[in-house]
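Issue: ligand-bound run for iron/sulfur cluster - logging full I/O for the record.

Environment: standard queue, default settings, no custom constraints.

Inputs:
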Amino acid sequence: MALTGIQIFKLLPKTNCKECGVPTCLAFAMNLASGKAELDSCPYVSDEARAQLAEASAPPILPVQIGKGVRKFTVGGETVLYRHEKTFYNPTAIAAKVRSDIKEKDLKAKLAAWNAFQYERVGLNLRPELVAVEDAGDAKAFAKTAKIIAETSEFNLILMSQNVDAMKAAVEAAGFKNPLIYAATQTTVDAYGALAKETGLPLAVKADSVAALIPLTDKLTGMGIKKLVLDPGSRDVKQAFEDQLTIRRAALKASNRSLGFPTITFPCEMASNLDVETMLAAMFIAKYGAITVMSDFTTESLFPLLLERLNIFTDPQRPMTVTEGIYEIGNPDENSPVMITTNFALTYFIVSGEIEGSKVPSWLLIKDTEGLSVMTAWAAGKFAGDEVGMFVKKCGIADKVKKKELIIPGYAASIVGDIEEELPGWTITVGPREAPHLPAFLKSQ
Ligand code: SF4
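Outputs:
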């Protein structure tokens, strides 16, 4: 259990030196207990006290890193029940399951198809992270399938077996990819705990209820294993949903360290078709599955889940942005039109989509406005004429085009004069106010 403020206070130097930024050690202790301060802010904590306090200052749901390479990810590390309280930090990882008796040819075909499911949105590459390999009963085939996935694809792995020897062989074959071992149960907790401790790999823990998870996680943390992922075993929709809420509440509201770990959910074991699985996965992305395992990936199932995940795991207090710079749309050349807008991701997304739809190759300049849309940025002075002019000068677009004409958003018409002053030799044209009018505007140029 987490320490209380008073318990923490007893471990502090009690000099009230104020170097941590608050007037007293007691105030610092209270802040630490409520997660509002970092232990490192006090330079005078002894090593012995630091070890004890590390638990109090650890996140209520421990973060766990899984995988290697471009699709590695972290789950857990969450601090709030509701997204609007602060933000959710680590997006739900999405997996598809294969059995280890799949033919090599079929496995490679699946991996190639799944690898192609990558979607560019607001400057991000949206894609799934994991393949779960389920042991079909042959230890050699299990290890071989895991090895093929680990060596020939970007996907990271969940190794699913209750056969300890098969798991050891698979870990030997694919352990370099930092897979999740699934799962330590009542019968395998000692063996899988020892394996996780020896290899440093993350370990899932499965029981037949939330309560039954507690002795297992206590045993594993007692062995020094902290990289745990919880499966309360429920496969009935109502119970599975309740279990997710119970675990999250216990970790955040009751400071229950035995349940302070991310969770794994299995829509693939709760439905008989992919449509229902997709609905269940959508529910678990919202509340509170850290990993969700499907029976397959198809574009019509995966894409909405990836978009939902993108929305839920963005910080509601900070607008999404794209990087400032020059964006080429449709292979523009020196005679192509040059437009400018702000770096609010939605603005970029809509404007670039309309330009693309117009089939007129264009240069789109994106100016950093801290994620504000055109009108808001203009009102806040972040899309002012002189700043826009300076940005156009320094971004290097003048070297790419012959015709020095800059098209600005219609809502920013009032900054024309200031831009002209900053950019002598350029013609400043006021474009349409609304992005959907861009195609007709560009074609009429
Ligand atoms: Fe106390 Fe440490 Fe803060 Fe100084 S820096 S007031 S010793 S908690």
